[in-house]
Design goal:
The protein is mainly α and about 475 residues long. It has 22 helices and no strands. The protein folds into two domains: about 375 residues, MFS general substrate transporter like domains (Growth Hormone, Chain: A); about 90 residues, Winged helix-like DNA-binding domain superfamily/Winged helix DNA-binding domain (Arc Repressor Mutant, subunit A, Orthogonal Bundle). Helix 5 packs antiparallel against helix 14. InterPro entries: MFS_trans_sf, Sig_transdc_resp-reg_C-effctor, Tscrpt_reg_LuxR_C, WH-like_DNA-bd_sf. Pfam families: GerE.
């Protein structure tokens, strides 16, 4: 775990950012066409449909426990499919042909991207949750770099835009796969659970809660896709300019995401909507007040919501996969099913609206979409059981390893230094050598709360490190008792 802890926040775990960047490049190229035509009916449905089929097959295959060989095989297969699909899409972009090569590329790349997310979600769930969160924060700068790089062909005459974007689409899967292989080699096997816990995992109320959680996120993603399509259709803005504003929005989303991870016990849909809905409301208000004057402000708000929401629901999938460590690939597969269904619903709804809507009606569509998003917020799971680690998880594991002498010594120390009940719990885990990430998961509290408790414990005991604490508690029983 020492090696994992040091490397967990490194670039290797941030490699999923290249996959994320690829998906947004595909999104922008798709939206550029579907906002002014019904190309979805002939092209995008093939991409989303093939992705959904692959995800459903993964659910069937990984219904039970998985092993590292299966994870490596999925990662390699996903890379091969994404690379082949990207090459076909690159040929279609260079040749400016939206026929055979474009359709074949989408059919092949779709399953590749879906399996890639399954592989990445699973491998990230094998690290400490704080390692995954640090790497997730690095995804956003990578995404910004990828999106801005895709605009270079339009600003630098040396590079033909189609050729430059084609090369980028091919290189991103390669970079993602290289970092995935590195991350997999550094990951640790999930700990085996008690037989009764393993038998209960994935059954009963937990499964129902997870299905409802993923369904809720699926509908929210559909709403965000409809909002984006309606915005582009109404204003007919340049997609290349949208990319620049989108990159700025991603930078704005970064501190919001960091703050959310800092103060929440465990990121859940209710906390996603808490900040996403107000920003969405502001965007719709701007769009109605003066759409011509504030078009880029509206675009900026939509970018913040899109980047923050999509990125953080990927993090929610990692939480769920970590909670069900022995069946992490099943949880990750269900997450891809949810996002794909959301994409299909959003694209289908917009294609239907497009047939009967005008530019003036796009604003009304924004209002309806906002209402649905608020409805999703009201129905979002607000409990901690799914995303926490209770009921036989880490907390149970910690309790099973406690020895009475350690507990007694911690109690003596807590009484001697006047620690609060929660500080006593933190002290108990620190005395066992537990990391702050472990304490956060075991007690289901935020990173900032853990840091505060540790600071108070150190101040009251007059020490400055965990080593001093362990030495004082375990070796100083006589002094404490006196």
């Amino acid at each position: 775990m020492e090696r994992i802890g040091k490397s967990g926040g490194g670039l290797c775990l941030a490699g999923a950012g290249f996959l994320w960047g690829w998906s947004f490049l595909f999104f922008f190229s798709s939206q550029a066409a579907s906002s002014i035509s019904l190309s979805f009916l002939t092209n995008d449905v093939l991409y989303l449909g093939s992705t959904l089929v692959a995800a459903l097959l993964a659910v069937r295959v990984f219904w039970n426990e998985y092993d590292v060989r299966q994870l490596r095989t999925v990662g390699n297969a996903a890379f091969a499919l994404m690379l082949a699909g990207s090459v076909l899409l690159a040929i279609s972009m260079v040749a400016r042909d939206s026929g055979f090569y474009a359709m074949a590329g989408k059919i092949v790349a779709g399953p590749g991207q879906g399996l890639s997310w399954i592989a990445w979600t699973t491998v990230l769930s094998r690290f400490d949750i704080e390692c995954a969160e640090r790497s997730f924060l690095q995804w956003i700068p990578i995404l910004v770099g990828v999106v801005l790089a895709s605009t270079l062909g339009n600003w630098v005459s040396v590079f033909p835009p189609q050729l430059f974007n084609s090369v980028l689409m091919v290189l991103l899967p390669v970079a993602s796969w290289v970092f995935f292989c590195r991350a997999l080699s550094l990951s640790s096997e999930p700990k085996r659970k008690d037989a009764s816990v393993a038998a209960a995992e994935g059954k009963g109320d937990d499964v129902k809660s997870i299905v409802w959680l993923f369904a809720n996120l699926s509908f929210a993603l559909a709403v965000i896709m409809v909002v984006w399509a309606a915005f582009l259709f109404q204003h007919q803005v340049s997609v290349e300019q949208v990319k620049v504003v989108f990159s700025l929005g991603a930078f704005v989303a970064l501190p919001i995401v960091w703050f959310a991870l800092r103060v929440t016990r465990r990121l859940a849909p209710s906390s996603l909507y808490r900040w996403a809905v107000p920003i969405m409301v502001f965007a719709v208000v701007l769009d109605f007040i003066a759409p011509a004057a504030y078009v880029w402000c509206t675009c900026l708000c939509l970018s913040v919501v899109s980047v923050g929401f999509e990125g953080m629901y990927h993090l929610v999938f990692i939480y769920v996969s970590k909670r069900f460590s022995q069946r992490a690939m099943l949880a990750a597969s269900l997450g891809v099913v949810a996002t794909t269904v959301g994409g299909m619903i959003g694209s289908t709804v917009w294609a239907a609206c497009f047939s009967h809507a005008s530019s003036a009606d796009a604003g009304k569509i924004l209002l309806v979409a906002l209402f649905v998003l608020v409805l999703c917020w009201s129905c979002a799971p607000r409990f901690g059981g799914v995303l926490g680690l209770n009921g036989g998880g880490v907390e149970g594991e910690a309790s099973s390893q406690n020895s009475p002498p350690v507990e007694k010594k911690c109690e003596l120390a807590a009484n001697a230094y006047g620690l609060t009940p929660r500080e006593r719990e933190v002290l108990f885990l620190l005395a066992q050598g537990r990391s702050r990430a472990f304490i956060r998961e075991a007690l289901f509290i935020s990173k900032g709360t853990v840091d505060t408790h540790v600071h108070h414990i150190y101040s009251k005991m007059g020490i400055g490190s965990k080593d001093e604490l362990v030495k004082m508690v375990l070796d100083g029983e006589d002094i404490i008792a006196s």
